[in-house]
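Page 37, continued from 36.
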C-alpha cells in the first residue's frame, strides 16, 4: 500500500478538493429505492462512491454502522474500503479506538492489516498506550480525537 499521507496529498492536489465523505449508512436512512437490494447498505455506499469519487479526497466509514449488522456488515465494510481504493480514494476508518496493551495492538492489526484502512481515528483518553500500536504502521495515519462537535463534550 502507498503511504496514506502521500496518497491523500496527491489526491487533494489532483482534484483540488479537501472533501472527506462520511459513509455512515444507518439502515433506516438508506433510500427506499435501494431497500430491495440484497445488501442495501452496500448498494448505498457503492452509489455514494460512484457519484462522489471525483470530488472526494477520502472516505470515512464509521465502524459502528457496520459492526451493528454482524458478519454482513463486516463484509460490507471490507467491500466499501476496497471499492474506494479501486477508485484511488483513500479511506479513514472512523472507529475512535482507545484501548491499551495488546488490545490496542489487535485493533491496529484489524484496521490496517485486515480491513486495509489507510488511516484510523483514535481516542487517546487512556493515554499514549492507546496510540503507540497504531504508530508502528509507518505507512498509515492515526487521527487523534482532541475535540468533538457534540454539545455535551467537556471543553478544556
Amino acid at each position: 500500500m502507498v503511504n496514506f499521507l502521500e496518497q491523500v496529498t496527491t489526491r487533494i492536489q489532483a482534484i483540488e478538493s479537501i472533501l472527506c465523505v462520511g459513509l455512515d449508512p444507518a439502515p433506516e436512512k438508506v433510500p427506499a429505492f435501494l431497500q430491495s437490494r440484497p445488501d442495501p447498505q452496500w448498494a448505498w455506499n457503492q452509489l455514494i462512491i460512484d457519484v462522489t469519487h471525483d470530488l472526494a479526497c477520502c472516505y470515512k466509514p464509521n465502524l459502528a454502522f457496520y459492526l451493528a449488522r454482524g458478519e454482513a456488515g463486516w463484509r460490507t465494510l471490507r467491500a466499501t474500503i476496497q471499492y474506494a481504493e479501486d477508485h484511488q480514494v483513500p479511506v479513514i476508518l472512523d472507529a475512535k479506538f482507545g484501548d491499551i496493551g495488546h488490545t490496542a495492538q489487535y485493533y491496529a492489526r484489524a484496521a490496517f492489516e485486515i480491513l486495509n484502512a489507510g488511516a484510523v481515528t483514535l481516542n487517546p483518553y487512556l493515554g499514549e498506550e492507546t496510540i503507540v500500536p497504531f504508530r508502528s504502521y509507518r505507512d498509515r495515519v492515526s487521527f487523534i480525537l482532541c475535540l468533538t462537535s457534540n454539545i455535551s463534550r467537556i471543553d478544556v
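DSSP finds six helices and five strands in the chain. Flag for discussion at group meeting. The longest strand covers residues 56-61.
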